[in-house]
Amino acid sequence: MSGFSTQWLTDGILHSLQTPSHLMVMLGLALLLGQQNKTHFVRELVLLAVSVLVGMLLNRYIPALRTSLLNNELILLVLALSIGLLIIMKWNLPCPVIIFSVLTCGVMLGVDSSPTIIPGIRSSSINSWLGGAAFGIVVSIASLSMIGLLLRKLLEGVVLRVMGYGAMIKSKSLTSAQSKLMAIRASKLDAYRAMVESCLLYTSP
């Protein structure tokens, strides 16, 4: 038990999945990232990994953080509740808000991740546990975020684009503006007809 073992790595990976407050925050953050624009998805995952590592370093070198487990749990639950409200609102959040949420959740998940300290344990075992915990957090959120992105595409439905055509009628009784307006109306009606035909084509057995 005092040396390096893959058991320490496995325990670290499973730690967040077995902690309810961690699981709630990870699920909420993943769904929130899945709702947003995927342009900066990789950047947000990198920031998450860095913030988790920073939180773990704070936990390891500031012993006072280990004794405030109740406060950490409460903070994580408040974070999960706040993220849940943002998910329900379905707002397109600006980048600073997303970055702040990622950094806050990452740091708190890292701070609240600590192995059981056994007298005589080697630092390599602790490091393997912490590495496994960081890996588990980042991979879990990344996987859930990808599922969220896929669900977002499904919920948004299929975008149907149609095009209509209308010809301008040259007549002495109509002005140029009236001819343009009639051509626009004709093109809209033609587009509606094409849309109905496309819908009937997709829905017909």
Task: Please summarize what this structure is.
Helices cover 72% and strands 0% of the residues. The chain has 205 residues and is mainly alpha-helical.
Give a verbal description of the structure.
This protein is an all-alpha fold. It is 72% helix and 0% strand. The chain has helices at 6-15, 20-35, 41-61, 69-89, 95-111, 123-156, 176-203. Helix 2 (20-35) crosses helix 6 (123-156), helix 3 (41-61) packs antiparallel against helix 6 and helix 4 (69-89) runs antiparallel to helix 5 (95-111). It is rod-shaped and about 100 Å long. The mean pLDDT is 82.
Work out the helix count. Answer: 7
Shape: rod-shaped
Based on CA atoms alone, the radius of gyration comes out at 27 Å
Largest sheet: none
Question: Helix and strand succession?
Answer: HHHHHHH
The span between the termini is: 64 Å
| Average pLDDT reading | 82
Unreliable sequence segments: none
- The helix content, as a percent range, equals over 70%
Strand content: under 5%
Task: Quickly list its features.
205 residues; rod-shaped; mainly alpha; single chain
Mind sketching the topology for me?
Layout lengths: L5 H10 L4 H16 L5 H21 L7 H21 L5 H17 L11 H34 L19 H28 L2
Helix pairs in contact: 1-6, 2-4, 2-5, 2-6, 3-5, 3-6, 4-5
